[in-house]
């Protein structure tokens, strides 16, 4: 029984040591000293810190443990402890935890694998030097990464839906969008992420220069200035977040629309004939993504934007196909 308790103690020490490395990285990279360099969106934090977590966990796991524990389960437990701690103490929001969790899991496994490979057949003293190198590497390379400029990636997200209504009916339902109820939108994972639901879109006047105000829950509003007005064919507008109405707690700083990492620039509705009495409605938007991990971050931003657009198109279709839609136009 004493042996089992001691073994459990080693596992606890391993997880605690890995958690300490991750929390230290989180506070250091969130500090003012590294904020201008990218902070928590630096590659040194997103890739090297979880590698150090995995290596540290593998270092303290007892030699009698299976490879499954050393290479897979140990890092998984430590990563989950870190993510739960970040949520419980409000270090990060749910969306950030969901975005980084696949990266942290994969790179922690990689760190554990590299550590066990590099230390195979070495003495304990040599193993200590190896794990120390893993733990120090993110902090040593951070100033060098800070010299690099984050690239700008301009992405387009497009959604299409076919509506059983003529273009004249569909047009009236896109230039203005009356208040939307939550049940009209249906369930979506973006709600669990904490993104506000769309509420309505008003229009100051028809034609080029008209201003749409697209409002979302929790005080989020976007000013959409129309620069292309082709009745029953195309409606296009620039998008600027109304920062005066958006509470600072609505979005995590790393996913704030209009921030240095992400912005939504334009939106376009395009109507195409799809047969007698049918219309193909296309909604596409352009976003700017400015991180050092744009290909990965773009998978998440594309998904979120696609879900938002899909739900809006679904509401428009429901309203256009309602029996009262045609007479109202």
UniProtKB/TrEMBL annotation:
> Is Transmembrane found in the keyword set?
yes
Source organism superkingdom: Bacteria
Keywords attached to this entry: Membrane, Transmembrane, Transmembrane helix
The record's listing under InterPro entries reads: START-like_dom_sf (IPR023393)
Q: Which residues cross the membrane?
A: 40-61, 68-89, 95-116, 128-148
Full protein name = SRPBCC family protein
From what organism does this protein derive?
Hymenobacter luteus
């Amino acid at each position: 029984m004493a042996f089992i308790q001691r073994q459990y103690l080693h596992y606890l020490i391993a997880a605690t040591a890995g958690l300490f490395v991750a929390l230290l990285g989180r506070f250091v990279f969130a500090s003012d000293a590294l904020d201008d360099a990218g902070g928590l969106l630096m590659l040194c934090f997103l890739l090297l810190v979880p590698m150090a977590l995995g290596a540290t966990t593998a270092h303290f796991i007892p030699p009698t443990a299976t490879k499954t524990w050393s290479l897979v389960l140990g890092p998984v437990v430590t990563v989950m402890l870190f993510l739960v701690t970040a949520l419980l103490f409000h270090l990060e929001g749910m969306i950030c935890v969901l975005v980084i969790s696949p990266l942290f899991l994969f790179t922690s496994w990689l760190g554990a694998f590299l550590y066990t490979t590099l230390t195979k057949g070495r003495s304990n003293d040599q193993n200590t030097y190896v794990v120390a190198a893993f733990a120090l590497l993110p902090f040593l390379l951070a100033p060098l990464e800070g010299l690099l400029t984050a690239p700008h990636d301009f992405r387009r997200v497009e959604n299409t839906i076919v509506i059983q209504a003529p273009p004249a009916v569909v047009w009236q339902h896109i230039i203005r969008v009356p208040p939307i109820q939550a049940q009209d939108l249906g369930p979506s994972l973006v709600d669990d992420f904490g993104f506000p639901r769309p509420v309505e879109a008003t229009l100051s006047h028809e034609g080029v220069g008209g201003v749409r105000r697209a409002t979302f829950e929790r005080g989020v509003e976007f000013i959409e200035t129309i620069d292309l007005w082709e009745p029953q064919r195309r409606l296009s507008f620039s998008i600027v977040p109304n920062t005066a109405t958006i509470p600072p707690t609505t979005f995590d700083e790393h996913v704030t629309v209009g921030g240095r990492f992400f912005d939504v620039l334009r939106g376009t509705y395009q109507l195409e004939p799809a047969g007698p009495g049918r219309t193909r409605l296309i909604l596409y938007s352009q976003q700017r993504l400015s991180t050092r991990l744009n290909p990965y971050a773009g998978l998440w931003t594309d998904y979120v934007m696609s879900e938002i657009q899909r739900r809006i198109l679904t509401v428009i279709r429901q309203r256009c196909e309602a029996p009262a839609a045609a007479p109202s136009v």
